[in-house]
Amino acid sequence: MEVLLHQIDAFADAPFTGNPAAVMPLPAWLPDALLQRLAEENRLPETAFYISALPPEAGLPPGEGPAFWLRWFTPAAEVDLCGHATAAAAAQIFGDMFPAADQVHFFTRSGWLGVDRRGADLVLDLPLVPSRDAVPDPDLIAALGVRPVRVLTGQDEVIVVASEAEVRRARPNFAAFPAVPRGVVITATGEESDFVSRYFAPGVGVDEDPVTGSAHAQLAPMWARELGRTELSARQLSARTGRLTCTVTDSRVLLTGRCRRYLDGVVRLPDAEASLLPH
């Protein structure tokens, strides 16, 4: 059996930047165990799988344009929300399947998500993720090696530090990370952008994620309240780096960025996988 694979860098403003995602369109769902093995083999932060058939619970898409059922897997687990792989899947669909479309919709574990095309930019529509103040976990703070000025919790654990320089300097000790059931973000106001961040999720097989769309669904409303405006520039300070523009509404966060295609290929599933395939 052959499966197409497209590797696309999301939120990338130059070659070899942004967050790489594998996008694998399927005619129908393969067994979950096989999807996980493919994601593990790809060894990218996320692999996005999608099919054109929608489940009954999806209902009608919330707008015009093609619609798909989308799932995301890290090398270690399926996740509930992934922004950069959604943008990458949209870029592949616009480029290969619907070149005249300006909008695509995905039914996911987090409900319906949309991506609009505006020239060279893609605008990803995510549900706003609230935060609340939390008590710092001393083991986590020690593993991060930072001095928090504020700690919040929500979808992810957010550690606010005093400066962009401290975000850059952080060298987490992943061997000492406590069992955190979600991602961990360190963030501060930026020198050339409104805010900066780095994202760590060793619990799902991603020590440091290059550019994390889902985290900005939580970071953007937090910084919007702090800075007093609803449109913000953001930069993730991983080794690859990535840039986003964030627009906050009452219940949604719009993330604007660009995608760069890196490769297109074919995965040939070996005979040893035959027992995992549907009959």
Describe this structure in words.
The two termini are 13 Å apart. The longest helix has 15 residues, at 213-227. Strand 15 and strand 16 (242-248) form a beta hairpin. The chain is built from 5 helices and 18 strands. It is globular, with a radius of gyration of 18 Å. It has an 18-stranded mixed sheet that branches. Helix content is 19%, strand content 39%. It is of the alpha+beta class and 279 residues long. The model has no long low-confidence stretch (mean pLDDT 94).
Topology, element by element:
Layout: E1 2-10, E2 19-25, H1 32-42, E3 46-51, E4 67-73, E5 78-79, H2 83-96, E6 103-108, E7 111-118, E8 121-127, E9 132-133, H3 138-144, E10 150-153, E11 157-160, H4 164-169, E12 184-189, E13 195-201, E14 206-209, H5 213-227, E15 231-236, E16 242-248, E17 252-257, E18 259-268
Parallel strand pairs: 2-3, 4-6, 11-12, 13-15
Antiparallel strand pairs: 1-2, 1-18, 3-4, 4-5, 6-7, 7-8, 8-17, 9-10, 10-11, 12-13, 13-14, 15-16, 16-17
Largest sheet: 18 strands, mixed
Tell how many strands the DSSP assignment holds: 18
Strand content: 35-45%
Low-confidence stretches: none
Distance between the termini: 13 Å
Order of helices and strands: EEHEEEHEEEEHEEHEEEHEEEE
Q: Which descriptor suits the 3D outline?
A: globular
Q: What proportion of the residues is helical, as a percent range?
A: 10-25%
The radius of gyration computed from the alpha-carbon positions, rounded to a whole number of angstroms, is: 18 Å
Structural class by helix and strand composition: alpha+beta
Q: Average the pLDDT over all residues and give the rounded result.
A: 94
Instruction: Count up the helices.
Output: 5
